[in-house]
């Protein structure tokens, strides 16, 4: 029997007395008012599953905000963490170093696209974006181009919620309130295939978006530091997806107009899209696979397999050299975090990357992705589903009030929340983005567990749109 003092109800009550949760209207959790969303205390993890204080199990269909790759409480990663904790937990990273950070930098420069030879550590995804933005601006300043102070982002983009990262985001839900505090980016049209004209292919959408970006660069390249994009999938913006040809065209335009290309692979890196990094899928000029190398690549989330906060910004030797000078020149990159290069996180990241080396992760993911896509086909003809889209191990279903016109449900009806609550009731964690139901499970998920995810989502969708 559950110990009532440590059960869901008691722990939730203690939580609600003091804790303020992220991306949450806390009133939703108020059990004494109209709050209808449970606060669930999780006491342990087991592979793709989470277990609450009452012993109920939940299949983690979203990898706990897209971080978990190889399962909760993965014994191999946990053992590496424990070993490191007995040796060195942390040390200042200015003037000091340690083997886990060195080895991780060596491995990251080995596995990322060519030319990314320098690694700067931070401690979360938003911080990585801040680093890349500041580093790009500071590079141009050091090169005598202080007039470059602006950035180009894509419509519908999301890069984080610190002020710099939010400045280059275009999701009104997050940005609108803080707009007076933010930088104003130039917005280029996304290559999102959802925006396709009748008869237009995904690649044609990408070419149209690149043509618009060219016009923007012709007008503003002289004052632009960088273009920042989420390669292939704009995740928090509604799991919008686009053709990899856009990345090849973007690289060419950035070279032509002398602006940097920042690739935010925080959510899409480490196998989510079918390749280790999404940038690898960009076609070469010949039309065959080639991949592109951005000027900055931002990594986090899956970097540590979901165990600890860590991020990294990779860049080129040429950019590094623009900061390398005598102290009196004042060109150093003065940016730091207390936990920069934390040994525990670096050691865990090394073990996560070792699993990619030792096991056929990407091959298995491709088989699982095919199964997931096959199961979701049943929703394509649903009268309230406007789109079913997928890139690798990321899939999304767009709910609408009217399929023909794509008219959305009124936001206040919170149809996606109904799917979430149905999922919890049936032991599945699905946390929609508005009315976009998405799937991003851990890589240890089985085909049978994917069936459970999809079956639960389908039933939840039926329930959500029934009245």
Automatic annotation (TrEMBL):
Its cofactor is pyridoxal 5'-phosphate. The record marks 23 as: Participates in the substrate recognition with KAPA and in a stacking interaction with the adenine ring of SAM. Pfam families: Aminotran_3 (PF00202). One of its GO terms (biological process) is biotin biosynthetic process. Belongs to the class-III pyridoxal-phosphate-dependent aminotransferase family. BioA subfamily. Catalyzes the transfer of the alpha-amino group from S-adenosyl-L-methionine (SAM) to 7-keto-8-aminopelargonic acid (KAPA) to form 7,8-diaminopelargonic acid (DAPA). It is the only aminotransferase known to utilize SAM as an amino donor. This is Adenosylmethionine-8-amino-7-oxononanoate aminotransferase. It comes from Rhodanobacter spathiphylli B39. The lineage of its organism: Bacteria, Pseudomonadati, Pseudomonadota, Gammaproteobacteria, Lysobacterales. The gene is bioA.
């Amino acid at each position: 029997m559950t110990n009532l003092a440590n059960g869901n109800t008691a722990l939730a009550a203690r939580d609600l007395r003091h804790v303020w949760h992220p991306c949450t209207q806390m009133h939703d959790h108020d059990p004494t008012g109209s709050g209808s969303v449970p606060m669930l205390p999780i006491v342990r993890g087991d592979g793709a599953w989470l277990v609450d204080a009452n012993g109920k199990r939940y299949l983690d269909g979203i990898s706990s905000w897209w971080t978990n790759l190889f399962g909760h409480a993965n014994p191999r990663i946990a053992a590496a963490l424990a070993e490191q904790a007995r040796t060195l937990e942390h040390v200042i990273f200015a003037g000091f170093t340690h083997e886990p950070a060195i080895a991780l930098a060596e491995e990251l420069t080995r596995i990322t696209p060519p030319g990314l030879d320098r690694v700067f550590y931070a401690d979360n995804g938003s911080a990585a974006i801040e680093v890349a933005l500041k580093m790009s601006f500071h590079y141009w300043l050091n090169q005598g181009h202080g007039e470059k102070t602006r950035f180009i982002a894509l419509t519908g983009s999301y890069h984080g919620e610190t002020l710099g990262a939010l400045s280059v985001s275009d999701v009104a839900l997050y940005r609108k309130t803080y707009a007076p505090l933010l930088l104003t980016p130039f917005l280029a049209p996304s290559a999102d295939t959802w925006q396709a004209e009748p008869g237009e292919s995904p690649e044609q959408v990408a070419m149209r978006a690149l043509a618009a970006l060219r016009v923007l660069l012709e007008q503003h390249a002289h004052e632009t530091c960088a273009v920042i994009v989420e390669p292939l999938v704009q995740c928090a913006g509604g799991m919008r997806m686009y053709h990899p040809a856009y990345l090849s065209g973007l690289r060419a335009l950035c070279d032509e107009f002398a602006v940097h290309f920042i690739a935010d692979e925080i959510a899409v890196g480490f196998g989510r899209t079918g390749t280790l990094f999404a940038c690898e899928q960009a076609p070469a000029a010949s039309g065959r696979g080639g991949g592109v190398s951005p000027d900055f690549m931002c990594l986090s989330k899956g970097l540590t397999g979901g165990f600890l906060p860590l991020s990294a910004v990779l860049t080129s030797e040429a950019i590094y050299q623009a900061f390398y000078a005598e102290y009196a020149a004042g060109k150093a990159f003065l940016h730091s975090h207390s936990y920069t290069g934390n040994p525990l996180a670096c050691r865990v990241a090394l073990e996560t990357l070792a699993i990619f080396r030792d096991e056929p992760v990407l091959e298995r993911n491709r088989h699982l992705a095919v199964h997931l896509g096959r199961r979701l086909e049943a929703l394509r003809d649903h009268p309230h589903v406007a789109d079913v889209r997928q890139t690798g191990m990321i899939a999304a279903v767009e709910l609408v009030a009217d399929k023909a016109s794509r008219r959305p449900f009124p936001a206040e009806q919170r149809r996606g929340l109904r799917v979430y609550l149905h999922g919890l009731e049936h032991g599945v964690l699905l946390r929609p983005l508005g009315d976009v139901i998405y799937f991003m499970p851990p890589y240890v998920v089985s085909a049978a567990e994917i069936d459970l995810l999809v079956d639960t989502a389908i039933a939840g969708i039926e329930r959500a749109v029934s009245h």
